[in-house]
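User: Fold both of these, please.

Assistant: Here is the first one.
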Amino acid sequence: MNKIKIFLLLFLVLSLSGCSIKRITINATGSFMEDVVTAFFEEEDIDFAKEAVPANLKLLDGLIKGSNYENDDLLLKGCKLYGMYAMGFLEDMDTDKKKEKENLKKASYFYKKAKDYGMKILTKNNDFKNVLDKDFSEFEKMMIAFNKKDVEALFWTAFAWGSFINLNKNSVEAVSDLPKVRTMMARVLELDNKYFYGLPHLFMIVYYSMPKMFGGDLEKAKQEYEKVKQISGGKFILADFFTAKFYTVQKQDKKLFDELLLNIEKTPDDIIPEKLFTKIAKKKAEILKIKLSDAF
C-alpha cells in the first residue's frame, strides 16, 4: 500500500510540474531567440537571410503557441520578425508586376500576423484594450498609460499595422484605423524618438508623404527625414529609400530622388552593425530606380 501511495504521489507531482517544465523550456529557448534576431539583423547576405528566416519564424510560432500567447518577449520577437520579413523581402523587391502582386499579398498577410502578435502584448493593458472600439478621442487620451518600457511593442505593432493599411488603402475598414496607428507612433516619438537610429521618424516620412486627405504634409515629411539623418548621423539609409519612394515622388523632386539613390549606392555595407538594413535599402533602391524611372 505504501508503494502505491508513493507511486501516486510521484505521478501527481510529475503531472502538476509538467506545465512548469514546458514553460521553463519555452522561456529558455525564447531567450536564445534574442541572439537569433540579432544575428538576423547583422546578416549581410540578403538571399541567405530570406531563406533562413522562415524556419525561425515557424519556431517562434511554435514557442508562442506553446506559451499560450503569454510570453511577451516571444510575442515581441514574432511581431518584429514578421514585420521585418514583409518589409525587407516582399515589398519593393521585384520588378515583375505579377511577382510583385503576389509578394504584396503575402506581405499584407505577414504584416497582419505581426500586428496580431503585437496587439496580444498591448491588450494586456486593460486601459488600451477597453478603448480599442471606442471614440478616437478616448483612444488618444489613453496613450499616456504607456511608458518607456512599452516603446518596442508600441513601435513594432504600429509599424506592422500601418504597413498593412498602406497595402490595403482600398479598404475603408483598414484606412479608418490610420488615426489610431498615427497616435501610437506619436506616443513612441514622445517616449523615445531616437529608438533604433530614429526608426519611428521613418514611419512618419511615409505618413506625411501621403495625400492630404490621409493627413499628408510634405513639409513635415521632409522634416522627419532630416530628423532621422541627424539621429543616425546619416547612417540609416533605409530612410533615404523611403524618402525617395514616397516624398520625392509626391513632391515630384527628381533631383532629390537621384541624390538619395546615389547616396544609398555609395554607402558602405557595414556603416551600421545591423548590415541587413543597409543591404535591403541598397537592393530596394536598385529596383526603385528601374520602376520609377518614368514617375517624374
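And the second sequence with its predicted structure:
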Amino acid sequence: MPNTRQRRETARRRLERQIQRRQAASVARRRRNLVTAAAFSVVLVLGAVVLLVTQLGGDDPAPVAAAPTPSASASASASATPAARGECTYTKSAEAATRDAGVPPNGKVPTTGTVAVNVVTSQGPMTFTLDRSKAPCAVNNFTYLAGKKYFDGTPCHRLTTGANFGVLQCGDPGGTGAGGPGYSFADEVTPDLKYTKGTLAMANAGPNTNGSQFFVVYRDTQLQPNYTVFGTVTKGLDVVEKVAAGGSDDSNQKDDGKPKIPVTLTTVTAAK
C-alpha cells in the first residue's frame, strides 16, 4: 500500500494536471472570444460599407441617394476618358429592361452646349438644363430615353431627408429602385464634383453602372464624387422641396424611403 508520502505526491500531480487543464481551457476560451470579436468587427465594417454603397445605389442592375446608394475612381481625370471626349458606349445588360426603349447608338456625341428639358409632374412643372460639357454621354442618354417616352408616367421612388442628405430619386419605371433600361454606360466624374442644391446626377449601383435612374438634389448634400453630374434644375425646384417637406415613409431606413407625398413624372420632353 502507498505510504503517506506517496499519497501526497500522487495528489500533488493530480492537482497539477487539473491546473494545467484549467489553464488550457482558459486559453481556448480567450482565443474563441478573440475570434468572435474579430468576426463581429468585420461584420460591422461590412455593414457600414454596404450602407454607404447603397446610399444612392439600386440602379439598373439591382436606392436615392441615393438612396439613396451606387462608380469610377474619384481620382480619374474626366478629360482623359473617352466619355469626356464624347465617345460613348452603351452596353446591353444581362438584366431585362423594366421598360424597353432599345439602346442608344454608340459613338461620338456633342460635347458643348446645353439641352432644356420640360418636366411635367403630378406636383407641378419643372425645367432641367442638361450640360453636355460636364457629361456628354449622360446627357445623350437622358435625351434618348426622353425621346422614347421612357420616363413618362413613372414615379419618383426614393426620398432622403437627412440634415446633410436631401435628394429625390427617379427614373425607374417599376418604382422599386431596382429597374432600368437594360443597358449601362461609364461614369463621367472628377474629384471636384459637388452635389449642391439643384444638381441633377445619375444614380448607380457601383462603378460604371449608369442607366436610367437619376436624382435631384434639393439641399446641399455630402457625397463622394462617384455620381455623374449632368445638369441642374433651373425651374421648379420648389416642387421637389414640397415633396421633401412631406417626408419619407422610412421604408429603407430613418429619413430614407418612398416620399409620403407621391410624385410622378407625367411627361419628360427634351428640346430639339
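The radius of gyration is 28 Å.
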